[in-house]
């Protein structure tokens, strides 16, 4: 029978490996090249692109961190993404919970009000959003950007988590209420722990989305380079690199932004892959 | 009393999210529709209504049509190329090893490949843009041109050649996107009952036959979701084009796309009213695309 036969090597399997390896190389090679270029000298970068660095030069990393402000951009990004995601999860789960599990007038309407935000491209709001933030005096401030991140992350977060809260059993929450727990306490001590798998997926989704955001900082933080986040900082460094002829510095800056993402990705790749794809399929 | 407490709780939980969302999301959207009917420049205190003039101008605007042509090309090419490559790779990963025991197996090392393929997805698009600036450098020092030079080819202006620029950008979008759809389709393939493959394999079906007769029909819904996502992505591409082609000035409008044009019109040329009209056009284009795709691909579902 087929199941007892050892797998036989076939031409097709060999071709499969070639196809897969080619795609893997297409991904690895540009990243590896960037990493190696950060140790090269300018002349090496502009020599044969396939050549290895002649020496392990680390000075470009120092220059990128200090002079090109990658350290500052990184810190700014961490601050904005931390508070942005925390706020999104707190307010998103609160709204989703109430909308999913409480009957009240206007429940459906508020739910669709949130979900409607999914249908609009952010470019539509760009001009007016700038003026709303400006009028509130929040232009070029991290607080402004954090609030905007939270607001734009809410539609998907509410949509996803409301579906998730609906699937949780009624009985546990009822028992807690009978034992005298308040609504708020029931939410934070019973429902949130029960909803953990859903909360983790959507947290990853929001962290990645806010970490990679480029358009909103570009519009809302344009005026103060000290407040810039990593993505806009890197785009700026890439234009400067040409004038200042510091190409190794540019590739060091790129490597510095890519490496932490790579480490986090390798640790959490299972959750990230399932988080992003379940997010997409809802 | 209990009713009152319940309503207090509900209101308390909703007030902050609704406020934030209304102020920063809904009110700008509504204002955008309103501003699209004005000639507002962003700083004057007088907002003059011009009716549908902005939309009339849009029809005569060569840049707008150029952008639409480019979106049209992306709308055709991006989903097809990405989905074909992703389907092929995920088929190899999940079923390429042929039938064994009670199911199909992927090729050796499929876990490693899946991790590598997905990685570009977690990179910021702006970072990917800067990375590909080095790859696409037009002189002999570019990574891609350096590789071509090994085969004795002359350097190619990937982003400066008007006939190539858009394709080079689409290639980056494919490069970044494929891994995500590999994971998406792999999840779909894993949900197909193993005995379907076993039965077909016993009947003598080869791997190619298994793919077209079993995998693809049962993967229909997942592919449709992917198609819509890629279609919406074809109307975006802001960070990539802005970083890759923005400063170098889109060669002959070859990479002009609506989002970048909207951004420039609003913040560089201070034509907020006109930019809003473009935004409204973009909104209707995206919605039309999504609705059309859902309608034309709707068919009897295959029940498992």
UniProtKB/TrEMBL annotation, chain A:
Location of the protein in the cell: Cell membrane
Membrane-crossing residue ranges in chain numbering: 12-33, 73-99, 111-131, 143-165, 186-208, 247-268
Xref: Pfam families: BPD_transp_1 (PF00528)
Matches recorded under InterPro entries: MetI-like, MetI-like_sf
Keyword hit for Membrane: yes
This protein's UniProt keywords: Cell membrane, Membrane, Transmembrane, Transmembrane helix, Transport
Family listed: Belongs to the binding-protein-dependent transport system permease family.
Entry protein name: Carbohydrate ABC transporter permease
Taxonomic lineage of the native organism: Bacteria, Bacillati, Actinomycetota, Actinomycetes, Streptosporangiales
From TrEMBL, chain B:
Domain ABC transmembrane type-1: 68-293
Pfam families linked: BPD_transp_1 (PF00528)
Membrane topology label: Multi-pass membrane protein
Record bears the keyword Nucleotide-binding: no
Keywords assigned by UniProt, alphabetized: Cell membrane, Membrane, Transmembrane, Transmembrane helix, Transport
Spans through the membrane: 7-30, 73-95, 115-136, 166-187, 226-245, 272-294
Subcellular location field: Cell membrane
Domain of life from the UniProt record: Bacteria
Entry-linked InterPro entries: ABC_transporter_permease (IPR051393), MetI-like (IPR000515), MetI-like_sf (IPR035906)
Family: Belongs to the binding-protein-dependent transport system permease family.
PANTHER family in UniProt: ABC TRANSPORTER PERMEASE PROTEIN (PTHR30193), DIACETYLCHITOBIOSE UPTAKE SYSTEM PERMEASE PROTEIN NGCF (PTHR30193:SF41)
Protein name: Carbohydrate ABC transporter permease
Organism per entry: Nonomuraea helvata
């Amino acid at each position: 029978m087929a199941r007892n036969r050892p797998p036989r090597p076939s031409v097709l399997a060999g071709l499969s490996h070639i196809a897969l390896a080619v795609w893997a190389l297409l991904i690895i090679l540009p990243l590896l090249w960037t990493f190696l270029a950060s140790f090269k000298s300018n002349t090496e970068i502009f020599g044969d692109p396939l050549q290895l660095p002649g020496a392990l030069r680390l000075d470009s990393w120092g220059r990128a961190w200090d002079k090109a402000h990658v350290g500052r951009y990184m810190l700014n990004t961490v601050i904005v993404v931390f508070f942005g995601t925390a706020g999104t999860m707190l307010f998103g789960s609160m709204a989703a919970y109430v909308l999913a599990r409480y009957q009240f007038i206007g429940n459906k309407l508020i739910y669709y009000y949130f979900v409607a935000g999914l249908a609009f491209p952010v470019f539509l709001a760009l001009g007016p959003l700038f003026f709303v933030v400006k009028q509130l005096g929040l232009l070029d401030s991290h607080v402004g950007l954090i609030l905007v991140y939270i607001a734009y992350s809410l539609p998907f977060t509410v949509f996803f988590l409301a579906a998730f809260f609906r699937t949780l059993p009624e009985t546990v929450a009822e028992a807690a209420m009978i034992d005298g727990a308040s609504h708020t306490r029931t939410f934070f001590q019973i429902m949130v722990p029960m909803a953990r798998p859903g909360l983790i997926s959507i947290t990853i989704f929001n962290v990645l989305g806010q970490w990679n955001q480029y358009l909103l900082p570009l519009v809302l933080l344009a005026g103060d380079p000290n407040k810039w986040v990593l993505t806009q900082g890197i785009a700026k460094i890439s234009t400067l690199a040409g004038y200042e002829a510091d190409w190794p510095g540019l590739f060091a800056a790129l490597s510095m932004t890519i490496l932490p993402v790579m480490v986090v990705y390798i640790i959490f790749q299972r959750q990230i892959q399932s988080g992003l794809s379940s997010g997409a399929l809802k | 009393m209990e009713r009152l407490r319940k309503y207090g709780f509900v209101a308390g939980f909703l007030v902050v999210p609704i406020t934030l969302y209304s102020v920063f999301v809904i009110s700008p959207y509504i204002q955008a529709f309103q501003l699209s009917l004005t000639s507002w420049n962003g700083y004057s205190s007088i907002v003059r209504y011009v009716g549908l003039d902005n939309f009339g101008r849009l029809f005569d605007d060569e840049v707008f049509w150029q952008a639409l042509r480019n979106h049209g090309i992306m709308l055709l090419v991006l989903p097809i190329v990405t989905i074909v490559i992703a389907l092929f790779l995920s088929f190899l990963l999940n079923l390429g090893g042929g039938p064994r025991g009670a199911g199909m197996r992927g090729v050796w090392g499929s876990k490693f490949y899946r991790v590598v393929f997905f990685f570009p997805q977690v990179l910021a698009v702006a970072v990917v843009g800067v990375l590909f600036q080095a790859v696409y450098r037009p002189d002999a020092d570019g990574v891609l041109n350096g590789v071509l030079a090994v085969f004795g080819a002359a350097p190619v202006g990937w982003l400066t050649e008007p006939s190539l620029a858009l394709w080079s950008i689409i290639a980056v979008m494919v490069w970044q996107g494929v891994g995500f759809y590999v994971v998406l389709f792999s999840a779909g393939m894993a949900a197909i009952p193993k005995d379907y493959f076993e039965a077909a394999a016993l009947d003598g079906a080869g791997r190619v036959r298994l793919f077209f007769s079993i995998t693809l029909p049962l993967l229909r819904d997942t592919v449709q979701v992917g198609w819509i996502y890629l279609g919406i992505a074809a109307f975006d591409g802001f960070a990539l084009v802005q970083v890759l082609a923005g400063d170098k000035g889109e060669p002959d409008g070859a990479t002009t796309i609506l989002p970048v044009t909207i951004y420039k019109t609003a913040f560089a040329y201070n034509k907020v009213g006109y930019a809003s009209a473009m935004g409204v056009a973009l909104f209707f284009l995206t919605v039309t695309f999504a609705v059309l795709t859902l309608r034309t691909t709707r068919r009897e579902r295959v029940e498992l």
